[in-house]
């Protein structure tokens, strides 16, 4: 029997490395889901809300380095997915979305100029085009061949590939679909790329006149690229700072790894920026949550060498930092290799009279100023994890406290929805990582954020995900903003507001109802409960009651 279009799409995706799909069943995507479920090399995970599908795929990629797929139906199936797609788009996470559409005989709204013709008919592809690298309406052989071409070139994808496929086309028998050869690549944004030699020449000149250089790396730096950079900075004795997105590259045992920086990362990293005279920035966005609102105040004495393969991002940096920005449009890997190969030590004593020390020697530096129980419990948790554990942190105060804690201990890799900062991220992201094969996965959540995707608890149970909850009775980071700008009016952020309270809920009871062994403790009871929580191969939920008046301290640069 001739395979259907849906079966051929799934076959090609599997051949291109997309083996796991997340989604919700629906009439217009049933053939796609059936194909992914029956294919011997792929799996389909039926999440309980489409938003979770995109967030599962985000966590899956962060943990494994492999892209995942999302399959959704028309209308609300697609609209529910939007948050997950946006999280992948702004973090440059590859994602393949297969979205069902009504059959061709009903896909007529645009023909009549009406809002809808077929049941739940929406122009998904036009909407998705705003937050996809490629968005295609697959309606026949020509667009199907284009979709196949993109699928065979996923290695350069830095965001969602969105394919809207009509229902009758999905199930249609089809001869083998011709696509471009593997050697044909999608276009990238790296126009006018600077050669490594040019990079070295310009960077060398700046290093020769610098005494206080700093390497700043972000999520765009791969582990392979960082190995070259780390060897280069070790030879030159140049310190390195890490964005939250690059925390997984930070090794607190290495003295030249000076930790995290940013408006919510108080400590030695930000202090270093205040005195640096040269920043070599690679794969890092330098967005508001990293540099603040007043660009002249970020590393005020430093010339900035900015290396990024995206010419549009480079244009933004040129605008924000004007005369002190030296822009280099290039991928990080060739530059990293070139720095190590071509830069012979100038025997410059960088950072004279400055002693570098590992994370083991800095705990006392911040304890009195910025560490309260919200941070200290996370320090104990992260410090007790194995290096193989993968951690996902949700948005809000929990996120800031998690990275403040990770800056002070030898922590495992911690990931988040770095740029969208969506609440409800951590639990489905952890599920995605576990589906990808990670055996030790923890989600760190605030009680408010957890409620947004708590329906995924059953998947967390089935995949032995551990859920750590800081319960501060609502939305702590919003209350902090309300204290700063709204006179402490906690409308919509606290269960105790007289006119607009949050409803009462119990995250522990929800976890228990889903069959997960669960406990609620006070912060001073954490030590005696960690062994139970970290038991291998078992799902666990640990809820820690936190003082709801605690704030994120040390905000600013």
Q: Separation of termini?
A: 65 Å
Count of the domains: 3
- The name of the CATH architecture of the largest domain is 3-Layer(aba) Sandwich
| Rg result | 24 Å
What is the CATH first-level class name of the largest domain? Alpha Beta
Number of strands: 18
> What is the residue-averaged pLDDT?
92
Task: Summarize the structure in words.
With 557 residues, the protein is an alpha/beta fold. The chain folds into three domains: 5-170, 3-Layer(aba) Sandwich (Rossmann fold); 196-342, Rossmann fold (3-Layer(aba) Sandwich); 362-545, Rossmann fold. Helix 13 links the parallel strand 11 and strand 12 (325-329). It starts with a helix and ends in a 12-residue tail after the last strand. Mean pLDDT is 92; it is low at 180-193.
Please specify the SSE layout and strand pairing.
Elements: H1 5-15, E1 20-23, H2 30-38, E2 43-46, H3 50-64, E3 68-72, H4 76-90, E4 95-101, H5 109-112, H6 124-128, E5 134-138, H7 141-151, E6 160-166, H8 167-170, H9 196-208, E7 213-217, H10 223-236, E8 240-242, E9 257-260, H11 268-275, E10 278-282, H12 288-291, E11 303-308, H13 311-321, E12 325-329, H14 332-342, H15 363-370, H16 373-384, E13 390-393, H17 397-406, E14 413-415, H18 426-435, E15 441-446, H19 447-450, H20 457-462, E16 466-471, H21 476-485, H22 507-513, E17 518-521, H23 526-533, E18 540-545
Parallel strand pairs: 1-2, 1-3, 3-4, 4-6, 5-6, 7-8, 7-10, 8-9, 10-11, 11-12, 13-14, 13-15, 15-16, 16-18, 17-18
